[in-house]
Amino acid sequence: MSDPGFGDDIPVYVISVAAELSGLHPQTLRQYDRLGLVSPGRASGRGRRYSMRDIQMLREVQRLSQEEGINLAGIKRILELQNEVEKLRAQMFHLANELQAARSAVARRSSAQAQPRGGELIPVRRTRLTIFNTAPPPDDDR
Fold first, then answer.
1. Residue 4: is it exposed, middle or buried by C-beta count within 10 angstroms (0-12/13-18/19+)?
2. Judging by beta carbons within 10 Å of its beta carbon (0-12, 13-18, 19+), is residue 128 exposed, middle or buried?
3. What's the pLDDT band for 7 if we cut at 50, 70, 90?
4. What CA–CA distance (Å, rounded) separates 38 from 83?
5. How far is residue 77 from each of residues 47, 72, 87, 110, measured CA to CA in Å?
6. Three-state secondary structure along the chain?
7. Longest dimension (CA), the chain
8. CA distance 61 to 64
9. Domain ranges for the chain
10. pLDDT category, 53, cuts 50, 70, 90?
11. d(Cα 138, Cα 75) in Å, to the nearest integer?
């Protein structure tokens, strides 16, 4: 059982530990931070603190660089696009849930209206009615 206060996003690892866990040199971690590839948290003394998610990201950056031959600018763009895709997926998930809830509400309302219960008040909009006199004008010569 894991401690709920110690998740993948909690920045707890100092740079030397993060470097060891990721298999990278501390100077490489500093460079990735300057480039915005990985953004670790900061301790009160401004020292970097890496989370487990940061370390996984460092490993992915290294893999893309070494195995795929992608330069750091390309990796940064890939990571930005992956983040955007994740945000859009989350937004789509929420919108799909809202749409399903709206469809369910319409279905419930439709089935309730299909079965009149009697004695029910029906809302009516007020309208103004203008009547034009269409009769011919009276003839004064008669």
1. exposed
2. exposed
3. confident
4. 12
5. 26, 9, 15, 48
6. CCCCCCCCCCCCECHHHHHHHHCCCHHHHHHHHHHCCCCCEECCCCCEEECHHHHHHHHHHHHHHHCCCCCHHHHHHHHHHHHHHHHHHHHHHHHHHHHHHHHHHHHHHHHHHHCCCCCCCCCCCCCCCCCCCCCCCCCCCC
7. 115
8. 5
9. 15-107
10. very high
11. 89
Burial grade of 31 (CB within 10 A; 0-12, 13-18, 19 or more): middle
- In one-letter notation, the amino acid at residue 41 is G
The CATH class of 15-107 is: mainly alpha
The amino acid present at 99, given as its one-letter code, is L
What pLDDT is attached to residue 45?
82
**1 pLDDT more than 50:** no
Least confident of 29-43, 51-65, 117-131: 117-131
**pTM score:** 0.62
pLDDT > 80? residue 136: no
